[in-house]
Amino acid sequence: MLTRSQKHTPVLLAVLALGLAVLPVFGQPASERDLPAQGEVVIDVVNPSREPYKIAVPRPVGEVRAAEMLAQVMRNDLAFTGSLEVLAERSYPVELEAEGLGLEPRRWAGIGAQGVIKGQAESLGGDRVRIELRLYEVVRPNEAVVTKVYTGTIVETRVIAHRFCNEVLRYFNGRPGPFGSRLAFARRLARTHKEIFTVDFDGFDQRQVTTNDSINLLPAFGPRGSIYYTSFLGGNAELFCTGRRSPLLAYPGPSMGAVLSPDGQKLAVSLSKDGNPEIYVADADGSNLVRFTDHPAIDVSPTWSPDGRRIAWVSDRHGTAQIFVANADGSGGERRVTYRGGFNQTPSWCPREDADIIVFSGVTGGRSSDIFSVNVANGDIMRLSGGLGRSTDPYCSPDGRLVAFASDARGGGIHVMTIWGGRVTKVVSGHAENVRWSTKVPDP
Q1: What is the C-alpha to C-alpha distance for residues 202 and 69, in angstroms, rounded to an integer?
Q2: pTM score > 0.85 for this model?
Q3: How many whole angstroms separate alpha carbon 251 and alpha carbon 255?
């Protein structure tokens, strides 16, 4: 006789293929506490208490095309942070050409600026430019606190702007930002046709990764620019990787939700080869497969801790879909992290130094799915999203400051918000699911 989880395996296949919520698989007893309602915050462990730092980003002087792109991209990047307020261009002093790369502090202090980014783009002939960018603090204007010089083509100006904004955040917070990193996601092109795409985190340079006219899901960034994904190309849900034609893992039952360890050496994946979904760990090439969980319940959606020493996943072993954590080497046993809600799914561990945070999607108030965070140390839960339709598949940026997620609101798409749920910005329009964020950002 099949166990309850073995009976659910065909259901999971249908869920994967059609992109349905995993709600029919799990039940929720009346005794389970609901997740926080909109406006209810249990403990906000990462919300900055100070007012946003006001920064001005005037258009650099010099080569017009490069200057326009630099200003546009830098303003957009810094606005994502929520901790920096980019002042409106109409408030800037008018004598920018005369001021050059220096700073007249009284003019900028007069509009409320605490920081100013100045720049110059010099044509080197053809489409090549030399770009110098400086960050000033108005309270100490005699010398820039960050100065960088770059050379490249006009097309590369966007990457240069991302690189400098990463250095701005490094100056203020000690860690570079996520600017220039990429998102991966699955997109439905027909009812039984989904392909994998990637895009810059701010919505530019969208690229199609798979073109096999099958159902491709659950992408994950791998070493050297590779993308892991689950595909029904051969009829069963098997694990593939770009750059090779044959499956990386092909077993009876679905192979789904692969995610690479922070060092890129290991992968964790959910396999049903022994009858019910369990978490397995293998080398990045699929070799040396080791079973990580061993329970008759459903175990899916693994995610690695930032240091690679722990794995979190979703299991219904206590009756509802909850998040569990265990050491990656199998020692110490598992620990339940969430005790609220009954449909907690798709966890993503955030690489933060100030708090041990996992973001996940959960259902509240009946059937509405929103994004939440949980403090792994103490179980405190915070609601991050609300009012955006069905919000799913959250994933943290490589610096832990931002969260990307999919939503079906207003035609669907990918949104990016701060880790405390502020400044929600739509970056990709159209159907999207299984959002993942790369760990790579441009070099300084």
Answers
A1: 14
A2: yes
A3: 7
